[in-house]
Every structure is written in structure tokens, then in C-alpha cells.
Design goal:
The complex is a heterodimer of chains A (431) and B (721).
Chain A lengths: L2 H4 L5 H13 L30 E7 L23 E3 L6 E3 L3 H4 L5 E7 L6 H10 L12 H9 L9 E4 L18 E3 L17 H21 L3 H18 L13 H7 L3 H14 L4 E6 L8 H25 L6 E7 L2 E2 L11 E2 L3 E6 L7 E3 L1 E3 L3 E4 L4 H11 L8 E2 L5 E2 L14
Parallel strand pairs in A: 1-7, 1-8, 4-12, 5-6, 5-7
Antiparallel strand pairs in A: 2-3, 4-11, 8-11, 9-10, 13-14, 15-16
Helix pairs in contact in A: 9-10
Chain B lengths: L1 H14 L7 H17 L9 H13 L5 H9 L5 H10 L2 H15 L8 H16 L4 H10 L2 E2 L7 H4 L5 H13 L18 H12 L1 E2 L17 H6 L2 H25 L6 E4 L39 H9 L5 H16 L19 H13 L4 H9 L27 E2 L2 H13 L9 H20 L3 H10 L5 H20 L3 H27 L1 H10 L19 H13 L4 H24 L18 H4 L17 H9 L1 H5 L6 H8 L5 H10 L5 H14 L3 H10 L2 H4 E2 L1
Antiparallel strand pairs in B: 1-3, 2-3, 4-5
Helix pairs in contact in B: 2-16, 3-5, 6-7, 7-19, 8-14, 10-11, 13-20, 13-22, 15-16, 15-17, 19-23, 21-22, 22-23, 24-25, 29-30, 30-32, 31-32
């Protein structure tokens, strides 16, 4: 992608549109949203439904969450190690003893125990899970949040449509889409939106005076240079001030939450991130990802997994309760996933190594029928029932959101892509 | 005779406003002038010295000039001053810093990646190559043919970057250096170009054998483990026995050895004979799936390795050969675009047989200059910078989509993210070229430690290592294991009893025990000195290795006293003084806090490639270095928020900032001029001076900070004229 094309004269999006029109005889967005028939991508799913979910809160366990010690327990086997299973409030549904609070939400959870990936390294696994495509060094694929914005736009024009809280700096973001659909990144949930507050040393009057002065001082330049890039800066300043004065800025402000809420979610970054996710969704942000690290338990798996689970258990339970009591759970799909599982064989450091062959994820809310398990492994080793891939899992999320899974979008290098590659949604999880 | 000379001089000044131009520069102007005449276009007028000085600093060294630098140039009456400044800047370290940012974006150079040290060495290698102005063709040959360890050449980062993805790596190489996109053909025949999947595999064969996976060390006297029946048959019975015995004892040391070898991962590459195989679903009639593919070039003459040459040698020679037109066209266009804002072929890395440059004569000439200058990038840029074309005022209207641009002058461009950052560092420190390349020593040290480690391991036999481990404290493995098991049991009990503090304490103890075990392995295998050296960094370059260019210590008492004296002299009353002191303290505290949030105030090129997410550099569109030329200069809301409310922007006119001092040291009358010189490299116009006077009347002592904050938030600041 050359910089000029992205820069001054027309946005990358226009560029892509232009290319698609001139070279391919097809149109990309926004007419993509019309009901006219489009050429379906070979192998991609044609299934589509009325959306059951409006929002997604995507909890990403980075490092590779041990399936055997969380959502696919096999207590009493060698593979399980010391980990025991406990019953949930859903009939016959068991999870690991390290998740006692989540066990009380069993009736909300659909546990998928049959994920299988081909990517056994962190970066590659993470990328595959986030984009449904394997990593290439010639192109970057968009993440789910970016696809959602691309297909459905924003529901609150003064807020970004997707946000990543405590994500990895390698998050694929908007991929080959234009920067405008890129998720906003928040490093520290308790600090909120970066630079959105007026400096303490400036009064509102000072701020407005300076802003007005900037406009005056720049007037000659703006008249002299007739470039789209220059005009764009005028617009973003207007938007920036709009955000600063917007009531929606409060969406990022966790100090507006009660002490009880803080306590329920927990004071760690992940808990605070989940709390922020709920606030953002309430204010119209559609896709919020919250990351929790330290799952790479090559050593002392049975010390570290319980430590992580403590945070996960508390925050995710609080999130499910909170969404439910606010009537948001029905329209909000909560996803918990990771790049791969961990070896059923316990290594000599009491740890578990990378294991993409079989791992677990969880779905709740957003039209998902709770209290069910999908797929089965043989003591965590092999998927023996209902094997699915990361694209299938993502297609399930896309299906819940009502995204057109077979809609082709061309990258600037004119290669065709769909939101979940050839993934097939697990329609049986709904209703 | 005399009159003619005078006339000629006058004409000379009219058409060449800027005296010293090179013959090649003049030729560029002549070629373009033909185009203007044909299209009945007027070229842009010559740029003012003020516009020129800002542009040339940003274009060559990637930052705005400091106040003294701008003043010195503007005040000079030397008729040759533009050419002299061009030469001065091209010779400075700032050139390497700025062009590193560009090439790092092109090459997708990442430092914070697996094999971090190799990434760092790669960055350092590129900076050094730019600094010593290595000719571009040689630079590319070195990248393509590199082999060995990171301590031999940082250039191995070129292959390590795409470790495990040799096919993608080839596509990127062809796109970057030959301006040709073949990536579609990786999976099927190219739908819009002539390349077949077979072409792709033929090309990939040249570099496929470069193995960027190897990281193990072969121990001395180690017999290779047979890889199957055939292998086993080749070995003598003694060898077989020895291999089996070694495998058995290696088990005993595999864990400690793994710890020790960890830092050698991703530090070596090796060119092997391996060839790619067609994919299992290859569907064209010219070959069968999984067939092995031999090297063959995409276009031009063939590249057959001579005796003693490797496949990459032949490939590199072919790629950079003068016969390979696209190689020179691409680099000539890249650098032209860096100076003028647009290439003669757009996009410059997507050429096909039917590609026609917007000005074919100029394209041919630029290729000739590049070849005449023997791929000396500075010499080539010098030609462009000295042309009238470059030195004209920026075009006032952005060219429309699909419209042919006749280069009546350079285009207006938004600063790159690195230029924004480096300009701010210039304002804050006044001394921004300090510390460029200062990470080099730290990187060298780490690399030499790794080399020692490598050599140490390579000199030991498995038997040596086993003996060392047995003799060491970790020999008492059973004792340690028993202790660890006990701790684990206690931990389970504590968790069941819900004793949170106890759980925390026990898990900490367990982790420490493991740490001690690892330390023991290092000691046993490497000896005390090397173990210490290695454990200090584990193969990473310390984060603070870059020399910190610090801003003046915030809130120093002396500084405050000075300020107060000044105010007293201005006749401020006691109450007002106290208010000032409080303000000063608050500002100093804010600055301290800001400093904590600020990354090290070094040039962007020293801040890691790319800078971490959330850094101001990323806010302004620094490439994530994931795909080729991925930097963005799109306007976004977080950028505006950053300039309005961010700590970096705030620091620019807070106590401790060099720029603020320079402004404050000037007389009240001159302060606004200093501000204009510092931020825009020019004096205020008459109209602006009038406006400033009215601000001063209206806002009193707030006027100057209003002016700075306002100018920082204008497009004039962000754009390069």
C-alpha cells in the first residue's frame, strides 16, 4: 500500500472501492449492505439469520488457556493432574474447581470443547483466532471488531465501534481495512480514554480561547492549500472536541461505578476491563475485547492456572450477572477464548506445553442456549466429537451478529476475503 | 561582453533562484519544463527560504530545525546556502535516523519480536549501512545472501523476520525490490497478471533453502541421531552405539540445557539445499502436486549459480543487475517520492508489463542517474534536492484521483509519525541528534555474550556437560524435587482451606525454587562468569540502553528562583507572585508525571520498531511493521486529542522544555517571533503580528502559552510545505 494513496488525496477505503469498481466489476461497501444478490465465496457459509446479538464482549485468554484445568475437566485421570471438577447449576455440566463462581452461571454457558487449531505458536495462534486466517507476511487480515464496523457501521457516532482493552500490541486491528474501522486501544482500563480530558492546568475558557486561536492562525494555510488531508484535520478537531464534551465520554470513566461494582468485578486490570466493557456496550460500543495474560503455563501449571482462574472466575461471573440484571445479556454475546489448549501430558516442570489439537471456549448470552456442551475430547487429548476450527467458532459469532458470512471483500492487493474464511457456524448452539 | 555577462547572471537568478545546482538537477528541470510547455502549465514559484529550511530538515533528517538552526540559515547571505545545507544534512547522523524509519517501514523491520536480539541487530545493521552510505545494490545483495549468526551480521534479520514463512518472504522481497506483486500466485495463477503458480515456486526456490529455524548448537563430538532406517544403515555399529549412549545421557541434561540454550533461539540462519515442493492441491497440468521445484527467474536473464556460488548469490546478482530494469526503477521512484510526495509510477511496487510512468523521459533519466551514481543514495537525493523542481513552493491543490501530475513542485505532505515525534523531541531537548545509534554498544555487548555462549557450548561434549551437571548443586535433583512436591501439596491444602495469603506465599516460594534451579543449570554448564553475564539480560537488550536525552530537570528550585526574579523585576505583587509559585509547582509536578508517562525522549529510530501501541508515534500512524509500507498519515480523532490534551504536547511549553527556555530568554517583544521560528521555522507575517499584539493585549501573560498551544494544533505545524 503506498502512503500517498492512503494519505492526502483519498482514503484507502475509496481506493479499495475504486479498485474494485474499475478492476473487478464489483462494488464493495456500502452497497454491500443492500439486498442485491452478491457472488458468494466458494466454500464459505451461506447461512444467515436475524441477528440474535447486537454486541460482543470478547474475553481473550492470551498465552493458551489449559482446557483440562478450566472448561474440559477430566478429574481422576492422569491427564487431569490434581485438578478436580465441580458441578454447575446446569444439569450434568461440570467445569473445573478453580471456577466456583462461574459454576453458578452454568445455565448461561455454552461450552465448546472441540476446538482444534493448526497453529501451535502464540503469535500465529492468536492471529488465527482473531482473524480466521493464518498469518501471512504480505497482508494483514482484519479482526472481528473491524469486520463488524465495516458491515454494520457505528451505533453511536461519537464513540468508536470497537475497543480493545489490555490487548496485545500485535492485535490485528483493522487489518487491510482503513484506519477508521480500527478498534480503539485502551491500555489501562481505569485510566479510560487517552487524552480525552482537558489538562488540569487549563480552564475551559483557556482551552476554548486556544482552540479558537488555532482556527484563526490556520485560516490562511487552509485556504491556500486545497488538500483533502488538510480538510480532514479540521474535521477530526471538531470530532475531538465533540468527544471531550460528549456525555458518552462517561462510558470510559470507571469512577462512575459504585464501590460494590468495583468489588464485584475485582480490582485487577482484567476485572476492571470487564467492567469497562459493560459500560462501553451500554453506550453503544459494539465489540469490546478484554485480554487476560499469563496462561502460558509451561511451569507450575497447577499453581498458575488457579491464580489466573481466580481473576477470570470473579470478573466473568460479575459480568454475566451484571449484564443479566441490566437486561443486556440477551443482546450481548459474551465470548471466552484463547489461542490453543495445553498438553494433556504434564511435563517435568509440573507444567503443560502448547496444544492446538484440542481446546475449549465458552459462549454466553446473545441468543446462545445456555447449559450445554458442544463437542467432546478423549481426556483432553483428541477431539472425538464435533471437531471445529477457529474459523467455525468465529462464524458462530458472526452468525449471532447477523453478518453475511459469504460476502467477499477485496483487499487493496485485490485478494478476496470473507469475515470467517470458510468457517461454518454452530447453529445448534442458538435458541 | 560585460553586458551579456550581467544579463546572463540576472537571467540565471531568475530561472535558477538558488545558484548552485548540479548538471543532473538542471536536466531534471529541463525534462519537466518540456512537459509544462506542452500542458501549458506554470511551474510553482520558488519556495521561500523559510519554507525551504523546514522542508529540507524534515526531508533529510526527519525533524524541524531548532531555532538557532533556522535562524542561521535565514540570516546567511551565502548564495550557495541551500546546496551547502543539503550537503551538511546529508552528512549528518540525522539522515540515517530518518531514512531508517522509511526503510524499516518498507522492510517491515521489527525489533520487539521473537529473536528480539536479532531484530535489534538488524535495526543496527540498517542504521550503520545508511550511515556509511552503502550503495543500495550492495545493501540488497548483502541482505539476500546473508548467512550465519546475528553476531556476524545483523542482516540475518531479513530472513528471521519471516521465520517459518519462506514463501511469503519471497513475495515480499520481490515486491520491495522489484516492484512486482506475485503474492496471488502463491496459491493459484495470478488473476490480473501473467504470473503462474509455477513461476512463483520457481522464484521461491532461490531463497527457500535459507533456514531461519536453526537455533541449536551442535555439541562437540556429538553423533547425529539417525533419522530413520536409511540413516541408520549408513552408520557404523560403533557410531550407532555412541549415538544411543549419548541420547541416553542427554536426557539427564535436557532440562538444564534447554534453559541455557533458550537465548540462542532465533540467532542463526543457514542456507541449505532444500527446495520447495508444490502444494498438495496443485491443480495445473504442467506438474504434479508435491513435486519439487527448481529455481528459475521470473523475468530477464536466468540466474544459474556459478561454481562456488550459492543459490542466493546467483539470485542477488540477478536481482541487482543493471539488466534488471525494475530493480533500479523501484529504488529511483522510492527516493523521488520521498522528496516530491508522489512517484512516477503509482503504486510504485505494483508494476506490470503495461505500466507506463507518468513521465517516461524523466523516469529513464532518474534510472540513469541512479546507475551513474552507482546506487549511492545520498548522491542521488542530492541531485533531486538541488533541482529547481524540488525547491519550488508546494503545489496548492492535491492532485485528483487518476489525474496525471506534472510535478510543478513538491506536493504538500503530512509529516510522518516519526517526523511529528522527532520534531517534538527537537523542541523539548534542543539537541535531537544526540543519542542516535547509541544502542549500538549495548547490542554489541549482548551479541558478544551470545557468541561466547555459542562457542562455549560448541566446545563441550555431551559427556562434559553431564559430568558438570552431576557435580553441581542441581545434581541433587531428588532433594529439590522432593521439596517442590511438598510445596505443591501444601499449596493444594492451603487452597482448599481458602487461606489466600498462604497460597500466595507458597506459590512464590515454589517459583523461587524453580528460579534457583535454572540458575544452577547456568552455573553448572557455563561457569560463573558467563552465567552471570547471561542471566543479566538473557539475550535481550536492556530497554534503557538508548542514551536518554533528558529534558531539563523539572521543577528545579534554582530554575524557579530565576523565574521568580524575572517576574519580580516585572513588578509583580506578592499575591500574584504566590499564585505564580503555586502555578509553577503544579506545572512542575505535572511535568514530572508527564515525564514518567513519556517514553525515553530519543529519536523515533531509537525507540523500538515499531513503538509500542498507545505511543504517540502509533497514534500518528507509525507502521506496525507487519506489512510493506504500512505507515498512515490519515487524520484521526486520537491524534487531535493527543495534541490538545496529551502529556507530550503539554511538556513542550512547560518548565524544563528547551523550547520554552529559548522563548523566555528572548525579550518580551521577540517571544512571538521565537515561537514562530521554533514551530514553523519562519517569522510571523504582518497580519499575524497584528493578531499577536491583540492576543497580548487581551490575555497578558497567558498570551505566549496560548500562541504555542494554538500553533501546535494547526495544520501548518503538521504539514510539510
Amino acid at each position: 500500500m503506498n502512503t500517498l494513496l492512503k494519505a492526502d488525496d483519498f482514503s484507502r477505503r475509496q481506493f479499495v472501492t475504486g479498485l474494485a469498481k474499475t478492476c473487478l466489476g464489483v462494488t464493495v461497501l456500502p452497497s454491500i449492505l443492500s439486498n442485491t444478490a452478491h457472488a458468494a465465496f466458494e466454500g464459505s457459509s451461506k447461512l444467515k439469520q436475524v441477528p440474535t446479538a447486537k454486541n460482543v464482549i470478547y474475553l481473550y485468554m492470551s498465552g493458551g488457556m489449559s482446557h483440562l484445568d478450566t472448561f474440559d475437566p477430566h478429574a481422576g485421570t492422569d491427564e487431569s493432574g490434581p485438578t478436580k471438577a465441580i458441578s454447575t447449576n446446569a444439569d450434568g455440566l461440570q467445569i473445573s474447581e478453580y471456577l466456583p463462581s462461574l459454576a453458578k452461571h452454568g445455565k448461561k454457558l455454552a461450552i465448546v470443547r472441540s476446538l482444534s487449531s493448526t497453529q501451535g505458536a502464540h503469535d500465529q495462534g492468536n492471529y488465527f483466532m482473531h482473524t480466521s486466517y493464518t498469518q501471512r507476511s504480505t497482508l494483514r487480515h482484519p479482526s472481528m471488531g473491524a469486520w463488524l464496523t465495516k458491515f454494520q457501521g457505528r451505533s453511536n457516532p461519537s464513540l468508536p465501534s470497537s475497543v480493545v482493552v489490555s490487548g496485545s500490541s500485535k492485535h490485528p486491528g483493522s487489518g487491510f481495512f482503513e484506519a477508521a474501522v480500527s478498534p480503539l486501544s485502551i491500555n489501562n482500563p481505569s485510566q479510560g480514554l487517552q487524552n480525552s480530558k482537558r489538562l488540569g492546568s487549563l480552564s475551559e475558557d483557556d482551552f476554548n480561547y486556544q482552540l479558537n486561536l488555532a482556527g484563526k492562525l490556520d485560516q490562511g494555510f487552509r485556504e491556500h492549500f486545497n488538500y483533502d488531508g488538510v480538510k480532514a484535520y479540521g474535521d477530526v478537531y471538531k470530532d475531538a472536541v465533540k468527544i471531550m464534551n460528549s456525555a458518552d465520554l462517561a462510558a470510559f470513566d470507571l469512577s462512575k461505578e459504585s464501590a460494590a461494582a468495583h468489588e464485584a468485578y475485582g480490582s485487577e486490570s482484567f476485572g476492571q476491563g470487564c467492567l469497562l466493557a459493560r459500560r462501553l456496550v451500554e453506550h453503544g460500543v459494539r465489540f469490546v475485547e478484554v485480554g487476560l495474560g499469563s496462561w502460558d503455563t509451561h511451569n507450575e501449571n497447577f499453581v498458575r492456572v488457579p491464580e489466573n482462574c481466580q481473576q477470570l472466575d470473579q470478573a466473568m461471573s460479575a459480568l454475566l450477572s451484571d449484564l443479566e440484571s441490566r437486561g443486556l445479556l440477551e443482546e450481548t454475546l459474551v465470548v471466552l477464548t484463547t489461542e490453543f489448549g495445553r498438553t494433556p501430558k504434564i511435563n517435568q516442570n509440573e507444567g503443560r506445553d502448547h496444544y492446538p489439537k484440542a481446546f475449549s471456549s465458552v459462549l454466553a448470552g446473545g441468543g446462545i442456549r445456555g447449559g450445554q456442551v458442544y463437542g467432546k475430547t478423549d481426556k483432553g487429548r483428541e477431539v472425538i466429537e464435533g471437531k471445529i476450527t477457529p474459523p467455525d467458532f468465529n462464524a458462530t459469532i458472526g452468525y449471532a451478529l447477523g453478518l453475511p458470512l459469504d460476502q467477499v471483500i477485496f483487499s487493496p492487493s485485490k485478494r478476496p476475503f470473507t469475515v470467517c474464511d470458510k468457517g461454518q457456524p454452530l447453529v445448534q448452539l442458538f435458541g | 561582453m560585460k553586458t551579456t555577462l550581467v544579463l546572463a547572471l540576472t537571467l540565471g537568478t531568475l530561472f535558477h533562484a538558488f545558484a548552485a545546482t548540479t548538471p543532473e538537477s538542471a536536466k531534471i528541470d529541463t525534462i519537466l519544463a518540456k512537459d509544462y510547455a506542452k500542458l501549458k502549465l506554470q511551474p510553482n514559484p520558488a519556495s521561500s527560504d523559510e519554507a525551504f529550511v523546514r522542508r529540507i530538515y524534515l526531508d533529510v533528517v526527519g525533524r524541524i530545525p531548532s531555532i538557532p538552526e533556522a535562524q542561521a540559515f535565514l540570516a546567511s547571505t551565502d548564495a550557495n546556502k541551500r546546496a551547502a545545507l543539503i550537503d551538511q544534512l546529508l552528512a549528518s547522523d540525522g539522515y540515517a535516523s530518518h531514512f531508517f524509519n522509511y526503510w524499516a517501514d518498507v522492510l517491515r523491520l521489527q525489533t520487539d519480536t521473537k529473536g528480539k536480539l536479532t531484530g535489534e541487530a538488524y535495526a543496527q545493521w540498517l542504521k550503520d549501512a545508511l550511515k556509511k552510505n552503502q550503495p543500495f545494490d550492495g545493501l540488497v545483495r548483502e541482505l539476500v545472501t546473508t548467512d550465519g549468526a546475528a553476531w556476524d551480521s545483523g542482516a540475518i534479520g531479513f530472513y528471521m523476520r519471516d521465520q517459518g514463512m519462506p514463501l511469503d518472504h519471497l513475495a515480499a522481497t520481490v515486491q520491495i525490490f522489484l516492484g512486482t506483486q506475485i503474492v496471488c500466485a502463491q496459491c493459484h495463477n495470478h488473476p490480473f497478471d501473467k504470473w503462474t503458480q509455477m513461476d512463483y515456486y520457481h522464484m521461491a526456490s532461490y531463497t527457500y533453502g535459507v533456514n531461519a529455524k536453526s537455533y541449536g548448537v551442535e555439541l562437540a563430538g556429538m553423533v547425529k541421531k539417525p533419522k530413520g532406517g536409511k540413516d541408520r544403515k549408513k552408520m557404523s555399529s560403533e557410531e550407532r552405539e555412541k549415538a544411543a549412549a549419548q541420547q541416553a545421557i542427554m536426557k539427564e541434561i535436557s532440562e538444564p540445557l534447554k534453559d541455557v540454550m533458550k537465548s540462542l533461539r532465533y540467532t542463526n540462519i543457514k542456507e541449505t539445499d532444500a527446495l520447495p515442493k508444490l502444494p498438495h492441491d496443485y491443480k495445473y497440468p504442467d506438474a504434479k502436486p508435491l513435486e519439487t521445484v527448481q529455481p528459475r527467474t521470473l523475468f530477464g536473464h536466468d540466474a544459474i549459480p556459478a561454481v562456488g556460488e550459492s543459490r542466493t548469490d546467483a539470485f542477488a546478482k540477478w536481482m541487482t543487475s543493471p539488466d534488471n530494469a525494475r530493480f533500479t526503477i523501484v529504488v529511483a521512484n522510492r527516493l523521488w517520492k520521498q522528496a516530491m510526495g508522489l512517484a512516477l509510477i503509482e503504486p510504485l511496487d505494483e508494476m506490470t508489463d503495461s505500466t507506463v510512468p507518468s513521465n517516461p523521459e524523466l523516469m529513464d533519466y532518474l534510472v540513469q542517474v541512479m546507475q551513474d551514481k552507482k546506487y549511492d543514495m545520498k548522491a542521488y537525493l542530492r541531485v533531486i534536492y538541488n533541482s529547481d523542481t524540488y525547491q519550488r513552493a508546494a503545489t496548492t491543490t492535491g492532485p485528483a484521483l487518476g489525474e496525471r501530475y506534472a510535478f510543478t513542485g513538491p506536493l504538500l505532505r503530512r509529516m510522518t509519525s516519526e517526523q511529528v515525534w522527532d520534531s517534538m523531541v527537537t523542541l523539548l531537548t534542543g539537541n535531537p541528534d544526540d543519542g542516535i545509534g547509541s544502542r549500538g554498544d549495548a547490542i554489541e555487548n549482548r551479541l558478544s555474550t551470545l557468541e561466547k555462549l555459542y562457542d562455549t557450548l560448541a566446545s563441550k561434549t555431551p559427556e562434559d556437560l553431564v559430568a558438570a551437571v552431576r557435580a553441581s548443586s542441581i545434581g541433587d535433583k531428588k532433594g529439590t524435587e522432593a521439596k517442590a512436591n511438598q510445596l505443591r501439596k501444601d499449596l493444594v491444602a492451603a487452597r482448599e482451606a481458602k487461606k489466600d495469603d498462604e497460597v500466595k506465599r507458597l506459590s512464590k516460594e515454589l517459583k523461587e525454587l524453580q528460579g534457583a534451579q535454572q540458575k544452577g543449570s547456568f552455573l553448572a554448564i557455563l561457569g560463573e562468569d558467563l552465567a552471570r553475564e547471561l542471566r543479566r539480560g538473557g539475550g535481550d537488550v536492556p530497554k534503557n540502553a538508548a542514551k536518554k536525552v533528558s529534558i531539563t530537570k523539572p521543577g528545579g528550585k534554582e530554575q524557579m528562583r530565576e523565574e521568580m526574579k524575572k517576574l519580580q523585576a516585572q513588578g509583580l505583587d506578592k499575591a500574584a507572585m504566590q499564585k505564580k509559585i503555586a502555578e509553577f509547582k503544579a506545572q512542575a509536578a505535572a511535568l514530572r508525571k508527564a515525564k514518567d508517562n513519556l517514553p525515553t525522549l530519543t529519536r523515533a529510530s531509537e525507540a523500538g520498531s515499531p513503538a509500542p501501541r498507545g505511543h504517540l508515534l502509533r497514534l500518528f500512524g507509525q507502521s506496525d511493521r507487519e506489512t510493506i509500507e504500512n505507515a498512515s498519515s490519515e487524520a484521526t480523532v486520537p491524534q487531535a486529542l493527543g495534541l490538545l490534551n496529551g502529556s507530550m504536547a503539554d511538556a513542550i511549553f512547560s518548565p524544563g522544555s528547551h523550547f520554552r527556555e529559548e522563548v523566555h530568554n528572548a525579550s518580551t517583544h521577540d517571544q512571538a517571533t521565537q515561537i514562530y521560528l521554533g514551530l514553523l521555522s519562519r517569522h510571523p507575517t504582518a497580519d499575524e503580528s497584528k493578531l499577536i499584539a491583540s492576543i497580548q493585549a487581551e490575555r497578558g501573560d497567558k498570551a505566549m502559552s496560548d500562541l504555542v498551544r494554538a500553533l501546535l494544533n494547526t495544520s501548518q505545524f503538521l504539514f510539510v510545505q
